[in-house]
Design a protein that fits this description.
The protein is built from eleven helices and six strands. With about 240 residues, it is α/β, with parallel strands linked by helices. Strand 4, helix 5 and strand 5 form a beta-alpha-beta unit. Helix 1 packs parallel to helix 2, helix 5 packs across helix 7 and helix 9 runs parallel beside helix 11. The longest helix is centred in the C-terminal third of the chain and has 17 residues. The N and C termini lie far apart (about 55 Å). About 30% of the residues are buried.
Length: about 240
């Protein structure tokens, strides 16, 4: 499983260099940067110290959505107090999740936000799973380079595992499930229930492959047993004559 590290709008080149150094030390090779050219500054290379090849091969994107164009499973880091989402995993809890996902997901990504403000709620909504580092301090303070090191260290064993052959259909299973659920909630006219939508969004990423497949089967059974869609009803809600 490929596991690129994505930095969103990093401001300080030293932090990008420290992130590259952490990646190289722990066996990660692919860095993507969103809306920043901090990696091009000499300070980034000074701090990178021997990991200049990661900086040389940085892929740059204008938005996070574009950076995730080929990613099947997205993990976004966040400070718990800033997120509107309530469910998130620690770096340790993330390990078994990715160990299971590597059996059927081709590319996962680990996303880090801005040094001063992290990821926006809109960017967090692009993630399948949210993760945060538990800290004792009342005011969480972990700079970008340190955060990347924590996660790269925790996940480094995954980079040493041999690749697993995967079917493209399996890799797209989770995104297809999200689309199917969105379509169903819209059809049931409950898409505006934000509490339920947020809960679904957060929990789907924790499903194993078998659970995902079974939920697809359940949704299929629900879909074929639902009445005809809203086009079979008049604007006032009454049914058309048959």
């Amino acid at each position: 499983m490929r596991l690129p590290i994505i930095l969103v709008s990093p401001a300080r080149p030293e932090n990008v260099g420290a992130a590259a150094r952490a990646m190289k030390t722990m066996g990660f090779t692919e860095m993507r940067i969103v809306d920043s050219e901090a990696h091009l500054k000499p300070e980034a290379r000074w701090v990178a110290h021997g990991s200049g090849d990661i900086l040389d091969n940085v892929q740059h994107f204008a938005t996070l959505a574009e950076a995730l164009h080929d990613v099947n499973f997205t993990v976004a880091t966040t400070a718990r107090s800033r997120a509107k989402f309530h469910y998130y995993v620690t770096p340790q809890e993330l390990v078994p999740i990715l160990e299971e996902k590597r059996e059927w997901v081709g590319t996962a990504a680990l996303v880090f936000g801005r040094e001063d403000s992290g990821l926006t709620n809109e960017e967090l909504e692009l993630a399948d799973v949210l993760t945060g580092v538990p800290m004792v301090a009342d005011y969480p303070s972990l700079n970008l380079g340190q955060a990347v090191m924590v996660y790269c260290y925790q996940l480094s064993a995954l980079m040493q595992l041999p690749p697993v052959p995967k079917q493209e259909a399996d890799a797209q299973q989770l995104s297809a499930l999200r689309q199917r659920i969105n379509a169903l909630t819209a059809r049931l006219d409950v898409a505006d229930d934000r509490k339920m939508a947020d809960w679904l969004h957060q929990r789907l990423g924790l499903l194993a492959q078998r659970d995902t497949a079974m939920l697809h089967r359940l949704l299929h059974d629900i879909e074929i047993n639902l009445p005809a869609d809203s086009s079979e009803k008049l604007a006032d809600g009454s049914e058309k004559d048959r």
